[in-house]
């Protein structure tokens, strides 16, 4: 029996004390919320805290799981050849607790953005939709299923 392979990633909405949202400009994907892959031996919350710190210089406190998204299509790496397995992303909400904005190899720019301007910065449709569900968190976790190339939404559920 072959076991399926999934990449597990994390991301989310980080707010500062003025209500602005932390955004990262990735060299290839453009503007997005901070996040990345969970490494072997770390929990998803540890991974999110690490990714935010690495990409932005900000230390955070996590408050809620706000959404889960599944990219059920197999894609290709940036080289256009190597396959990428399906991806499951857990998205959180949290607050900035310390640190200064800094860029990294994964972030050309880092900025605090007004909540009502976040979606306008995002170029990729699936990233914009996924971020919209994070921003609209109302106590119910959104489960968002999609595939890319072409971008197709397969379903959205709200879980208690």
UniProtKB/TrEMBL annotation:
Record's keyword annotation contains Magnesium: yes
InterPro entries: Nudix_hydrolase, NUDIX_hydrolase-like_dom_sf, NUDIX_hydrolase_CS, NUDIX_hydrolase_dom
Boundaries of every Nudix hydrolase domain copy: 5-136
Database matches in Pfam families: NUDIX
GO function term, MF aspect, one: hydrolase activity
Keywords assigned by UniProt, alphabetized: Hydrolase, Magnesium
Cofactor(s) the protein requires to work: Mg(2+)
Repeat found in the keyword field: no
Similarity comment text for this entry: Belongs to the Nudix hydrolase family.
Protein known as: ADP-ribose pyrophosphatase YjhB, NUDIX family
